[in-house]
Amino acid sequence: MDISEKMLGLGKKSSVIREIFEYSKRRKAEIGAENVYDFSIGNPSVPAPGIVNETMIRLLSEGDPVQLHGYTAASGDPAVRQKIADAINREFNAGARWDLIYMTCGAAASLTISLAAITEPGNEVLVIAPFFPEYRVFAEHAGAKLVPVPSRTDNFQLDLGAIEKSINENTKALIINSPNNPTGVIIPKEDLIRLSELLSAKEKEYGHVIYLIADEPYRKLVWNGEEVPYVPNYYADSLVCYSFSKAVSLPGERIGYILVSPTMKNAGDVYAAICGAGRALGFVCAPSLLQFTVAECVDATSDFSIYRKNRELLLRELTRIGYEVIPPDGAFYLFMKALEPDANAFYERGKEHELLLVPSDSFGCPGYVRIAYCVTTEQIERAIPAFEKLYEDYQK
Ligand code: PLP
Fold first, then answer.
1. pTM (two decimals)
2. Which residues form the pocket of ligand 1, taking CB atoms under 6 Å from any ligand atom?
3. Distance 217 CA to ligand 1 centre (A)
4. Which residues of 178-212 are buried (b: 16+ CB within 10 A; e: fewer)?
5. Share of the chain above pLDDT 90, in %
């Protein structure tokens, strides 16, 4: 074959989420946008906070235009990284160091770079199911094998026994995502402590490092004041993959970072490998204007009150109708039990009522659908009768 078969496959078949999102656009053109209830994609529905645009305008009108649009250091502008490290230390007292921060094009790039930096072909990367489906693409691209570990069936929290059983001499990393996409679950401090004890014991047993990768695009989206413990404060061999996509509604601008835990024994080498992976993948010098902008907005968030309202409305209405849902503690997704074992068949029935819900199979946890509630409240209000009809379909 004159092209990479693997890449051809990835390019020809987009993710289930993207497929539904594209279907939604076609369907909206056919029957009108207000008649399609698209809950497929995690695209923030609230604008970036004012400070983001104000900073951009100020930088564009007052900044040095050459520097503003020029290359920064491959790993990101040092002053930007210092501001990010300062903000992390103010909030978590984590000893974060600017020279262990690598600016990226969002969490997707952070994960791709991190996995390429720490794994070698044959290594295994554990993920907790249900998980963000792109993890499989990122891990396999690095030559590693993705190993899903089920979470607890009663509450979707970590199942430490299952994690322990899945670790072997090939295990190189575990990815956790809290608050979680698609369940909204937040890992409590006690569980993180137990997880870090387990990983430390396994590192000793197998004589090599097991990295804990905290994928954190939803860190700031928390609904009932739960603490989202800062992973590097609990486990030395950790990396944080952060993104500004959801916290400040900038998903299309592609900006985030990787933080290497300052307490990691070989932090310098891991950081150098991250620089190497960024170089090999062409992920150098994240967009300069965005770097300078987020440095001024590290503590800002979008107005999350709409997500909060949407969450409450959906929880109340879906429960009233009779659906079984997991009350999410964070992020803007609701995980709902499908009304038949085959979530794809349930998705198709939902489609008949113009409800676009993501079947959970690609998240490694069949039998559910994910509802992204980062939409307008009006869309939810209009969709409730459709959810009712779908439920009635299954009572016949
Ligand atoms: N990780 C998770 C769990 C996500 O849900 C997403 C996006 O939805 C990403 C990573 C990628 O985010 P980014 O836009 O920062 O690349």
1. 0.97
2. 42, 106-108, 132, 177, 181, 215, 217, 243, 245, 251, 256
3. 6
4. bbbbbbbbbbbeebbeebbebbeebbeeeeebbbb
5. 95
